[in-house]
Structure prediction request, 372 residues.
Amino acid sequence: MSLKLLLVFLTSFLYINAQIEFPVHRNGDLVFPVTKSFTNDFYSSHYGNHFFDFFTGEFPIVESSSGVSLLREFKLHKDYVVALSFYPNDNLLATASKDGTVKIIDVETGSILNTLNHSGEVWDVSFDFSGSTLLTVSDDNKINLWDVPKGKLKFSLEGHDQTIFNARFNAQGSKVISSSADGSAKVWDLNKKKCICSLKHNLKANMVFSSVFHPKKDYWVCTSSMDGVIRAWDVLELDEPKLIKSFNVGDNETIFPSVIYSLEFDSKGEKLLSCASDETTSMWDFNRGELIYTVTGHDGAVWTSVFDSSGKNFVTASWDGCAKVWDVSLGKEIYTVGGHSGSVTSALFDLEGKRLFTSSWDETIKCWSLSS
Prediction:
């Protein structure tokens, strides 16, 4: 997550809670609250106590646990690396950065196959199931669809009014769902190249940070937002989407509710992961609408969480400068993956689950070996 997203988050939150007034200190493009009580409350409730110095940019480096070894480091970008997507069949890794570029690399050779340029900071990147199409989103409010072999733009989807944080394909690669700071999630038909359904969220929800299709029934989608609520929708009737269930994370009535940054289904659509600003990751039974467990261990907001291909493990990436690998059935930590000198923004497994890729504010991508 870039400094700009943090700024958007702060200013949006103050808009909702307009009664809070305080002077600011300006440093570059980030506005810092200087009222001590507000800063402590906001920082501790959203970013933890793993002390990052806003003014020097320094992060303490977390050591990796036993069984984790660094295989390779990639330095491809000139600014924060904020998202990753891996296509295992061709060993392709796509990396998205605040520098306005996406790189597609061969992880075996380290060679850059294509560089995709954007007019703004890139927030998310994702391959479709075939690996032939890549989607990217940025703060130019567009969803771009790229021809991977050619490295050429196929077309763009436009309709959001503000920055798009996240977008994902459905299992067939025929639709995309996107999440935006404009308070909506949108479903897009790629054949028609247009929005076919818009999911509006209330004022308290404000920004929508994440949205995903159910892997088995793509007329079911889930969204997450600033109000600490996960919403599951039935979009079969495109003109009248129905809210079918909701999951509450933490105490939503506090002045600083838990913000849900990311959602991820397992391959069967039975389990749903959510990660939040309160340093937790929750595992949900989607069908029953019940919490299975919540894991703690990070010392800061958890940005993303994803399952491995077997569904036996999942990984979390956090503000605290590390990723953690967890056992799905037990909810127990297996590994801590450190080594970065900045917030870890994304983490994902290779197909066999023996390698892990991490990206960070330190402008690097690292490839790690995980022992059995």
Summary: The longest helix spans residues 3-16. DSSP finds two helices and 30 strands in the chain.
